[in-house]
Amino acid sequence: MALLEIDDIHVFYDKIEALKGVSLVVEERQIVTLVGGNGAGKSTTLKTVSGLLHPRHGQIRLNGKPLGVTKAHKIAAMGLVQVPEGRRIFAKLTVRENLDMGAFTRSDRAGIAEDKEKMTVLFPRLKERWTQVAGTLSGGEQQMVAMARALMSRPNVLLMDEPSMGLSPMMVEQVFETVRKINAQGVTILLVEQNALLALSIADHGYVMESGKIILNGRGADLLADERVQRAYLG
Q1: Strand-pair category, 213-219 with 205-210
Q2: What digits encode the pLDDT tens for the residues 60-74?
Q3: What is the pTM of this model?
Q4: Domains along the chain?
């Protein structure tokens, strides 16, 4: 049984069908990436998995349990947490306060304090910015805050939507290296990313999406070597 299963989901915005029978599987401790162009349906897939949207047809299962129309906050409490596109941090709160918000479902004060310390090890720059208002940080630093905030909930599955968006090449490399470290600590990751080269290079398995459908899937390394993927996404 896979940790996360998406089975033939169809998702609509009013009468417009955005996802047309999408299926994918995420095994425990894997990095699975979903790549494709703008408007392919990648972000809609993540929003549906996290409960912000609900499929009209098809099913999503977490640890074998159908999510149905489970609300987003309950899905988060089940251990599936999203780092949203555009970061969406609490701009007027400090770095520390943003991390506190990530732990809002928890009551174990000692564990929360311990995890904050872990976040300063995983993201050393945040320790330097601990009391700084998050909205004044650079884009890369804000991405670190968004990732650390999500990790404060101790997720089993981390959904990441375009973590490289708007970042410098050097910062993009740092973010992807951190994704590897998070996965090495036992967190399963479903990654949506336009930078197909980087995403597939760290993925155990990849899916290529186009016009609301999965058109290719396979091992990350195999997709990197696929001529169709190279022509469409790798130049």
Answers
A1: antiparallel
A2: 999 999 999 999 999
A3: 0.91
A4: 1-79+155-235 (3.40.50.300), 88-153 (no CATH)
